[in-house]
Amino acid sequence: MSEAVNFKYIGTRPVRPDGVDKVTGRANYGADANLPGMIHGVVLRSPHAHAIIKKIDLSQVRLLDGIYAAVSGNDFPEVSSGSMGGEGGGDYKDLAANIMARNKVLYHGHAVAAVAARTRELAVEALALIQVEYEILDPVMTLDAAMAEDAAILDESMFTQGVDPKPKYPSNIASRIEFKRGDIEQGFLEADIIVESEFRTPTVHQGYIEPHACLASINEGGQATLWCSTQGHFDVRAASAKVLNMDLCDIKVIPSEIGGGFGGKTVVYQEPVAILLSRISGRPVKMVMDRDEVFRASGPASASHTRVKIGARSDGTLTAMSCWMAFEAGAFKGSAIMPGAMCIFTPYKVANFYIEGFDVVVNKPKVAAYRAPGAPQAMYACESLMDELARKLEMDPLELRLVNAVEEGVQAAYGPKFNAIGFRECLEVAKQHPNYTRALKEGQGRGVAAGFWFNVGMQSSAEVHINENGTVMVIEGNPDIGGSRASMALMAAETLGVPYEKVRVVVADTENAGYTNVTGGSRVTFATGMAVIQAAQDIISQAKQRAAATWELDEDQVDWQNGHAIPMPGVNADVEPLSLARIAANSGRTGGPLLGRASLNAKGAGPGFSVNIAEVAVDRETGKTDVIGFTAIQDAGKAIHPAYVEGQLQGGAAQGIGWALNEEYIYDEKGVMQNAGFLDYRIPVASDLPKIDTHIVEVANTAHPYGVRGVGETPIVAPLAAVANAVRDAIGVRITELPLSPSRVLESIDGA
Amino acid sequence: MSKMHVSASVNGEPVEFLCEPQQSLLNVLRDELNLTGTKEGCTTGDCGACSVMLDDRLVCSCLTLAAEVQGKSVGTIEGVANGDTLHPIQQALLEHAALQCGVCTPGYVVAIKALLEKNPLPSESEIRYWLAGNLCRCTGYDKIITAVQDVAQQMAKADKNAGEPA
Amino acid sequence: MATVYFPDHLLAYCENQRQVEVHATTYRELVRLLDKRFPGIGRVLSERISVAIDGQICHEPFLEGIGINSEVHFLHPIAAG
Ligand code: FES
Ligand code: FES
What we know:
The structure holds three protein chains of three kinds. By secondary structure, chain A is of the alpha+beta class. Chain A is globular. By secondary structure, chain B is of the alpha+beta class. Chain B has two domains: 4-79, Ubiquitin-like (UB roll) (Roll), CATH 3.10.20; 88-163, DNA polymerase, domain 1, CATH 1.10.150.120. Chain B has five helices and five strands. In chain B, strand 3 (51-54) and strand 4 (57-60) form a beta hairpin. The model of chain B has no long low-confidence stretch (mean pLDDT 96). Chain C is α+β, with helices and mostly antiparallel strands. Chain C has one domain (2-75): Ubiquitin-like (UB roll). A five-stranded mixed beta sheet of chain C has the order 2-1-5-3-4, covered by helices on one side. Chains A and B meet through helix 1 and helix 19 of A and helix 2, helix 3, helix 4 and helix 5 of B.
């Protein structure tokens, strides 16, 4: 934007509208709702990682006193194959089979049956009475094993997509993708220097603190009401309807407050089960996963294996980049290999690249989106190798990136030309940052890395209602996962010219909000924000009409400023400005209540770039790495509520640091996860982390009225490589597999 | 199995309830007494979302047996604000935007209050170690720590003023 | 004339042409014209595809306007966390 914009509310840091309820324990999350007559559902989970279900016998459990319903896969309707569209792009048939196994169990923890009983304890006890006969198969637990010629096959009907000619035999490789530009061989010929390496990352979990929870109740007419913790209640409605073969309009989904999701709560697990149990029992059914189930049966992110090769001239100019990457999808196809492949080289201008990617099924839970799905794994590989390249060239790593950084007008690796983006600005800020230049001590190291995420737009709806005293209600359909009510209120206040305190924001259920895509893709402040702004503009135009009618002027003779209708400059009218409150108070006489609305399919979500600086201290005796400084720099387009933008940067950094240093699923040879609890799957705690410094760059996204680009996902992308590069700097050896656990670091130090 | 009868005080009010011998305090608070402000993140003592005060001790209510609270006083998040006034800790967390999803927040409020009662002016690392049992996946802890430092200063100042003769 | 760029995975549908010029004012019209030139591509460009028109990515394109000098790129829809 050329002219500086002076905002009155945007860019301030008020207390969020839902804050008081959240600090007093009043806010109701997924597990906090109860209904009279409610019973409790629990799931029987597979004790095997890979097996054929020969028989399930529920007859004994059904006889037990206090058991109201018992179901297995046989009690669900057949669901045919079909794309889920929307966010994840998965297949409904797979979704149904993940919710309740049909003929085969595909991971340890896969749901095979469910019961509902008077108490949760009774339901858990009753699970022992369910008899399941399995034929145990070899578990396929790694990419190498799954891609091997003689691998046990998870799905005999799966033939690798994207290879020509069509394969003759089934495979665990669901699909192969390829992106290329220029002449890769020529590109490497032009290089003065070529670096090459391969990298691996483990299976990790989103680690939201609130387990999945829901409460379902269905009436005699077959109309269901579902209360649940989700990132997108419209998607829960669609998925439940599909899996249960119900009419969409017979399911009402009320989103509870949500205790974290990070992509993991865009997926449906127990909601359709609860509806079915409720239908059979005639009672409301509550289902809450325990932490063990959350780890074993919900959302991890893909383990990955990536080989990268980069060629550059001696001045740092990149001439060629190529990679081979494979992502674990878990039990069903559909990892984030596509976005991973689309973003791996995106930060850089390079005329020649070649990217080959594989989506591979293994006997682990089906992966779910995790914040910028696919990008952290992909860019960990690219950014680690860029660091090596800088070392070989004896060039400052930020300078190397500046030489090659994409900017406005450059064609992105994934296709289109960039509009205004803030990557260069982030790099410049990093270069000047005191945390980049301060002296380090012996045993300490510093690393930098860049991050990128597309961000998405998609569909959103919003209504703005003006109360009779001029206060404002904003009604929208995105569960507030990190302060988005505050952003919506700020944008409404700014647009209407009314104080922030006079605006309330309601996250309404599927019957009271217009259709809205999930809280995900960093889209809420951008897309739903845009809907809120348009709905507020709708109010303004109505308010101007009412004022014109009141003043007996033409509509185009009225202007709107600072929350008041005023005559346009030059219009000769001896009238007092009319506030929104006065217009609202008088609305009965001028045409009825003021009701604004907007719905849209938002396009032009601005790409998000970041640069992170990690500083670590490595204890050479124990191999333990401490992050002693971390700086997250990111382009937010425009920070509507800067404190919540900083919060996204800091939270993403912490998750990325965990991914780099500690977190991983550990399996035994039978495919049983060994660390399904927070004690052993160790996410960073307060004493593990330093202060996380942030710097918000603002290069306005011209597609949004206030310049917003999404910020929620990019923050997790750069930390993996930033930390890995810092450890490399500290110990003098490159470790190419995450996590950089003490034992692995120690091994590398000793081996060096 | 017969249920046990327990009398205790919860947030200053006398309370009686029946519980199973193995039932956790968290379970009774949430399911029997409808005090759902205390959250469940793990039931294994690893996340701190269920933090409550038992007499003057900070405990994980998921690891505390309900029967253990016989004759004791339990303090939960619902008892922290005073009438219609937020506790300064709650206010500080809000002003510093120290919560995103907020599911960890009740546990933090209780744990921070316990900290400042023991140690009114903790150092940054004392705060970080005291709160190491409270997991937050959203914030990266930064703003929570800043909020605690800030509110500790404020409360110390207020105490000092209150202590000075008028 | 708008310039339309085809990524690798669509080359099989457009006689391996990397870029073509089309005179269209909306995405719908563009797809119609392309389908005339390359029969069968219309279906591919109407299902689960995102389009970037002058750098602005749009999911489920249909009525989006296309300018005289617009650049049009097709890409896979992006999932999100
Ligand atoms: S629920 Fe008690 S510590 Fe997690
Ligand atoms: S704010 Fe979400 S876990 Fe702390």
